[in-house]
Amino acid sequence: MILVIGANGQLGTVLTKALQNKYGLDNVLASDVAKKEGFNGLFEIINATDLERIREVVKKYNVTQVYHLAAILSAKGEANPLLSWDINTKTFLNVLEVSRAENVKKVFYPSSIAVFGNNAPKLKTPNNTSLNPETVYGISKVDGENWAKYYFDKYDLDVRSLRFPGVIGYQSLPGGGTTDYAVDIYHKAVLGENFDCFLNEDTILPMIFMDDAIDATLKLMEAPKKAIKTRTSYNISGVSFSPLDIELEIRKYYPEFKVNFKPDFRQKIAESWPKTIDDSEAQNDWNWKPSFNVSTITEIMIQKLKEQYHIAI
Ligand code: SER
């Protein structure tokens, strides 16, 4: 059985469905702090700060793989650093401990471009470089990466991890991240509204389309164990662009669309992150390659959101 913790979130919603499609409805168990209405499949309530609850579910369903997606993201985390630290680190340590003790075979852990800070090169940021994050989210992800490697080295627990850029998808909404604007902007455009952007127009950040993010996760998890040479976390690159780049792409469909740039505290977080990512380790070790760029992302986002909002195509 595959257990997804944090199945209601931006990635969890889509990854759970992808796992169900790949491995069958009866082989995937979704979990979160509450059940979403209309969810189709196996579900258990798990608050991942409760180690014994994770253990109970892992034993009951004979769980062999865990995808641990629960976390408080970069921008939201700054409102309550201690709580964010506690939630982000405690839940992952609980997952590692239960997995070690109950013989779980594989664990997936999402890390983030937020592990990088101002000492890392901003262009083509390499996998191995200074990690001096500016946010509590980033600090917790560096910590998680090191724990992942520790459990692999010490207990041979097969923990695998990706450093996600901002994830852009039509299926779910992000919450509390610094890259959220790149999803929200499409919703506003399709609804015929203008958009207030909390980043400056020229702030380039690494992003990835949801389909690529899911593809990378499944590829990483299916790769032979010996192919996984990076046991902290792999850089993965999708595409890099600024809010202005998206605005110009959207104008091809909505010529009247306008963005007002009103940078807030998230600007400083964005400026501490890379602009572009070097993911040659992922390319070499398990054949990673993204498929979507800003034009194809824009085309699909607009088409799918129009369908969702029942706007005539
Ligand atoms: N999307 C995340 C954030 O903005 C980055 O991992 O916090």
CATH C-level category of the largest domain? Alpha Beta
Strand content: 15-25%
Strand order of the largest sheet: 3-2-1-4-5-6-10
Q: What is the mean predicted local confidence, pLDDT?
A: 97
Structural class: alpha/beta
CATH-assigned fold name of the largest domain = Rossmann fold
SS summary, helix count: 11
- Morphology call: globular
Low-confidence stretches: none
User: How many structurally independent domains?
Assistant: 2
Under CATH, the homologous superfamily of the largest domain reads NAD(P)-binding Rossmann-like Domain
Helix content: 40-55%
Q: Bound small molecules, which ones?
A: serine
Q: Gap between N and C termini, in Å?
A: 40 Å
User: Helix and strand string, N-terminal first?
Assistant: EHEEHEHHEHEEHEEHEEHEHHH
Radius of gyration: 19 Å
DSSP strand tally = 12
Q: How is the biggest beta sheet arranged?
A: 7 strands, parallel
What CATH architecture of the largest domain do you see?
3-Layer(aba) Sandwich
